[in-house]
Design goal:
Length: about 400
């Protein structure tokens, strides 16, 4: 499952209210203050347009200049925006620091606390994440934002309890997260005899037969392209065969527009973007194994963001599909690094592609399996998706300010 998203702090620039004054009648200090405010305001206007066009590195540079003019009446905004650019650039440490400074300068917006909570989560500082999330709940927060933060508090409490030392695990520097999953018994495998896995993609209606008006006809091709990516990552060990009969399929892929369909705990406020359900073998025969064997898997993907009900873009759909299919192929648990597709939460550092660590993890899981001459998706003509299928290792991360909230 994937949950929760950064809330952008709105860039609200009040018009500079100080009026030009005559130097002769005012002290030099007041003139200095006026000039500082004026320069800060002008620079922030530039920052606004830079951020809107996704130029976070440039925006951060200008913001660093603005913060040299502290204190002024924009100090709170400029540090909040600096934090935001750091967040987008994946520098959560600096972002946390800047959110704190923004709060110190009188920032009261709930999003400052919420974003700081998310940064702490990315840094695996679950206790600090909890503190900030609770502060967000105590601030003047809109009703519709509460459920996901309450859910976050619950999830972070569980994680803080699992990591009582509140340490930032060093695992993120490892070349994969296989050992982490193994330690938590969070790995399953498909038997070699099951390969190629028979895949059925349910088109047009959800599992209950309800029509899906947001379903796109290119989704089966998208699913198969994701499976192909995982196949390549496995070193060609995993292979797939599209089938037309749901009953004979090993893996069933379905879609939904109803957030409640994909919630892990019934009755909870839905924040998940997809769910993978398994039928697992009860024993580990023929040989003792640390992995449970998968008999069947069912993946359900939400076509909308669970809180706003806004339709996903194709890129978002691909990101979610890669994540859920990773679960379905055996990575039952999650990575501890925000860049990996198998991170438990959607993050700005993820692209709709696998990281080296994602690839290395699936490759280790199936390392004993014989490679097939023809791997990937068999018997299916991949329709072009009209988007870049390149691997993320060669892609440069481009933060996109338009992607916000809700999934
Ligand atoms: Zn997940």
């Amino acid at each position: 499952m994937k949950t929760m998203k950064l809330q952008l702090s709105a860039l609200v620039l009040a018009a500079c209210i100080a009026l030009p004054i005559s130097a002769s009648s005012q002290s030099k200090v007041e003139l200095d203050n006026y000039l500082r405010e004026k320069i800060a305001f002008e620079k922030l206007t530039r920052v606004d347009s830079l951020m809107k066009s996704g130029k976070m590195v440039d925006a951060r540079q200008v913001l660093l200049e603005v913060t040299k003019l502290d204190p002024n009446s924009y100090s709170n905004e400029s540090h909040a925006l600096l934090a935001e650019t750091c967040y987008f650039l994946g520098n959560f440490q600096e972002a946390v620091k800047e959110y704190d400074i923004a709060i110190k300068y009188g920032g009261k917006d709930w999003r400052l606390f919420w974003n700081a909570a998310l940064c702490n989560m990315h840094l695996n500082n679950y206790k600090n994440a909890l503190v900030k999330a609770n502060q967000a709940l105590k601030s003047n927060i809109p009703e519709d934002a509460k459920p996901q933060i309450q859910r976050f508090v619950k999830e972070m409490s569980e994680k803080a309890a699992e990591n009582p030392g509140n340490f930032a695990p060093a695992n993120i520097h490892r070349s994969d997260y296989f050992d982490l999953l193994l330690a938590g018994r969070e790995l399953n495998v498909w038997d070699n005899e099951k390969l190629p896995l028979k895949v059925y993609v349910k088109e047009g209606t959800d599992l209950a037969g309800r029509p899906l008006n947001l379903y796109r006809k290119e989704y089966p091709a998208l699913i198969y392209s994701c499976l192909d990516i995982w196949s390549k990552a496995s070193g060609g060990k995993l292979s797939f065969l599209p089938v037309n009969d749901a009953n004979s399929a090993d893996m069933l892929i379905a879609f939904s527009q109803t957030p409640q369909d994909v919630t892990q705990v019934k009755g909870e406020i839905p924040v998940e973007q997809g769910i993978t359900r398994f039928h697992l073998s009860k024993d580990d025969s023929p040989a003792p194994s640390p992995f449970r064997r998968i008999l069947k898997a069912q993946v359900e993907l939400l076509l909308v963001k669970p809180t706003s009900l806004k339709a996903l873009t194709v890129d978002e759909m691909k990101q979610i599909s890669l994540h859920e299919l990773g679960h379905a192929l055996g990575i039952r648990g999650h990575s501890d690094s925000a860049s990996d597709i198998m991170y438990f939460n959607q993050s700005f550092r993820q692209l709709p592609a696998l990281t080296k660590r994602d690839k290395a993890t699936i490759a280790r899981l199936y390392s004993d399996y014989p490679g097939l001459e023809a791997s990937g998706v068999l018997g299916f003509n991949l329709a072009p998706l009209g988007q870049n299928q390149e691997d993320r290792d060669s892609a440069k991360y481009k933060p996109d300010i338009g992607r916000q909230s809700g999934f």
